[in-house]
């Protein structure tokens, strides 16, 4: 069998090198996606404890449009948590359009009984200091919401004490906490009305 020409040898070398580069890139992108997925699940623990589910809520998701409930005319993500194949909780994103300094984006966990498992602020435009009061669920103000439901706290009481509600306002500021509480109450009403349908819809393709 004749020896390959120098040109063919160079061509084979280039092809082999390209294949190796492609394989390396594919492996690297897979590692990056896996790391991002792990980080997203870790962040989810702020609103939904990991012991509440055994599926992958990031993959079991739908998008819902309900401006009155979720504060946006755009499709909003809803993650479904299940345990032993049964509905366990929902994690819903919602917009608070009437906050003091601009819209606030929330992530709200609601268990199958309709109780809040956690609330996280994903984005806000409040001034430093004021925003710190609710920026993470480790703050006292957001922590006080955990475990509440429409059964324990009727809709009319999902507001600040100044307005006759059950929740503290911030010193010198009521607009944003009032708006956040109103949005959470609307999300709880939405879940109560549509829980079965939310779990029954086919999941989006990730």
From TrEMBL:
It is a single-pass membrane protein. Keywords: Cell inner membrane, Cell membrane, Electron transport, Flavoprotein, FMN, Membrane, Phosphoprotein, Translocase, Transmembrane, Transmembrane helix, Transport. Its main location: membrane. Pfam families: FMN_bind. Its cofactor is FMN. The modification FMN phosphoryl threonine is found at residue 174. It is an enzyme of class 7 (translocase). It is found in: Cell inner membrane. InterPro entries: FMN-bd (IPR007329), Ion_transpt_RnfG/RsxG (IPR010209). Its EC number is 7.-.-.-. Residues 99-191 form the FMN-binding domain. Part of a membrane-bound complex that couples electron transfer with translocation of ions across the membrane. Belongs to the RnfG family. The complex is composed of six subunits: RnfA, RnfB, RnfC, RnfD, RnfE and RnfG. HAMAP family: RsxG_RnfG. This is Ion-translocating oxidoreductase complex subunit G. It comes from Tahibacter amnicola. The gene is rsxG.
């Amino acid at each position: 069998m004749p020896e390959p020409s120098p040109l063919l040898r160079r061509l084979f070398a280039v092809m082999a090198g390209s294949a190796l580069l492609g394989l390396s890139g594919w492996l690297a992108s897979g590692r990056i996606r896996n790391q991002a997925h792990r980080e997203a699940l870790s962040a989810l623990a702020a609103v939904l404890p990991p012991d509440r589910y055994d599926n992958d809520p990031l993959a079991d998701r739908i998008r819902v449009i309900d401006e009155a409930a979720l504060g946006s005319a755009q499709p909003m993500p809803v993650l479904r948590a299940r345990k032993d194949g049964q509905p366990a909780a929902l994690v819903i994103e919602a917009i608070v359009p009437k906050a003091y300094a601009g819209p606030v984006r929330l992530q709200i966990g609601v268990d199958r009984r309709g109780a809040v498992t956690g609330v996280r602020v994903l984005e806000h435009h409040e001034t430093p200091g004021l925003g710190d009061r609710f920026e993470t669920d480790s703050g006292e103000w957001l922590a006080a919401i955990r475990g509440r439901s429409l059964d324990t706290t009727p809709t009319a009481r999902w507001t600040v004490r100044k307005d006759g509600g059950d929740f503290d306002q911030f010193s010198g500021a009521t607009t944003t906490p009032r708006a956040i509480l109103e949005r959470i109450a609307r999300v709880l009403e939405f879940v109560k009305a549509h829980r079965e349908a939310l779990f029954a819809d086919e999941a989006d393709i990730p």
